[in-house]
Amino acid sequence: MNYNLLNTSTTTPKQKNATYTALKKLLAMMSNERKTLIMAFFAIIINSSLNLVGPLIIGHTIDKYVQTKQFHGVLVFSGVLLSIYLFAFGTSYLQSKLMGGFGQRMLFQLRNAVFNKLQELPVAFFNQNKAGDLISRVNNDTDKLNQFFSQSLMQFVGSLFIMTGAGIFLLSINFKLGAAALCPALLLFIFTRTISPWVKSRNAINMKSLGNMSSEIQESLNNFKVIIAFNRRDYFRQRFNEANKQQYTTAVSAGLANNLFMPVFSFTSNLGQLIVLSLGIYMIASGAFTVGLLISFLAYVTNFYNPLRQLAALWANFQVAMAGWDRISQILALQNNLEPIPDSATNKSDSLLEFKDVHFAYPDGKEVIHNINFKLEKGKTYALVGPTGGGKTTTASLIARLYDATSGTIYLNGKDIRSYEATERTKKIGFILQEPFLFTGTIKDNILYGNEKYASYSNEALIEELKQAGLEQLLNRFEKGLDTPLKTGSDSLSLGQKQLIAFIRAVLRNPEILILDEATANIDTITEQLLEDILQRLPSSTTRVIIAHRLNTIANADEIYFVNSGQVIRAGSLDDAMEMLMHNKRES
Ligand SMILES: Nc1ncnc2c1ncn2[C@@H]1O[C@H](COP(=O)(O)OP(=O)(O)OP(=O)(O)O)[C@@H](O)[C@H]1O
Q1: Complex ipTM, two decimals?
Q2: Is the CB of 122 under 6 A from ligand 1?
Q3: Membrane spanning segments where (predicted)?
């Protein structure tokens, strides 16, 4: 499955209905907000109606009371107008409050939905996408939608309402003149429909480049030590400058596209007035129309085109929001291709773990594992040795089902490894990675990560368990023991210390298969010996898979596999493995 979001744009012109489909999906997510939306809708309709009657009352007051100097009537209608304006203020406030709350709840829900989806996706997804771009989608793109919904949607509805009212008045006073006045609006409609996909694509490109810029910032912040050590500040400054420049260009282009609506809408409004004026004067001259009617007609044309002009700005916001939604829905539409599948009854294996005719290629790369076959038995220790880039980590990743084989089958306890639920599989297989990742929290939080069995244990009870497994000596190396605070990305711990915590975490889970991928590479020889003793004390049924470059670490292995150029060969003894490594070195 292709997880590369930048190669799966949903904004191609081919997908004509993409906006509407996206909108429908978005509204479906908001189904529990129906009551709020209906209330806000009525508030804006009442507000718009009040705004429509205002001028009528003013006209009526002038004609009936001002011209006849009946000041009592003027006073009464001023009071009526004041009440109307106060009521309009109330409905406008209510609408803003409802939609502001709705926007924030939607933002909260959307960010949760996108983040939860990210948690579900497999390693291949994260290999193919940059963290900076993903952060931009979770933060910026969701906010574009919030802005549209909290600020623009109901204005959109209100403007549409006033415009429709004015349009009906125009057509009912004089159909022919009304139709002529509305003609430019038809042209405008065609123009908007034609240009909208282009405007949306400008906005999509702009958001993509914003994501790209976030990736640049993220990369340089993550690797600041290397940048400083190699004095590459200029290089990153230049890369950031380029990304920023590109962002500037795409933002200008999107801004121009968004702002194109406004002058075009103003022009059509003026065109409408001009048509009414010229035709109206002609009709007055031929006796078919009156001056009074022409004045009210012009007022309605203004009432029709003014909200239309406002709609232009709102339409641009809508395009920005839809481009954002496209980018969000790309993530939401992804499926984890590592979901459990039904187990096929054939070709069962009698080993603890078996690779049968396994081939593997990374999603966007060439094949790196070629037709490998090997078995792991219960309780034995296996070593994977071989040159850098030979395929050891990839083989281990396949055992842990971080990826699925491109072809062939991997059996765990005789069942296709793909048929296990993730919780069951991760309980059986423990993996200590080359670069262990620790979360913000304490050592206790980190070693109990994903371990339900000990989640409710007190420190004392947990220390007792650690003692049983021989792990307490490792914990004692940290001043505050279980309560030692850790910070993500902080350098308060050495790599070796991090490896120790990852080791305790994996061993405490008591997995059936424990994979150590260069897990002791940064640990001193004495501590390494201690780890070796702990490994020896694991239950006799535990199978160990050790990947190591230092051959002394695999001296106790029952079986050694030589992994080179995507092939896994049984190496025999440690001496044979050494010979294979030396031979490989001489050849390369
Ligand atoms: N995420 C990835 N995407 C594409 N190719 C990858 C990825 N990870 C590894 N590879 C490629 O797969 C091949 C095997 O890599 P692997 O990490 O399995 O080797 P290794 O034997 O563990 O190396 P080392 O001893 O350096 O850890 C290499 O050619 C590498 O370039």
Answers
A1: 0.96
A2: no
A3: 37-58, 70-89, 153-173, 179-199, 248-268, 274-301
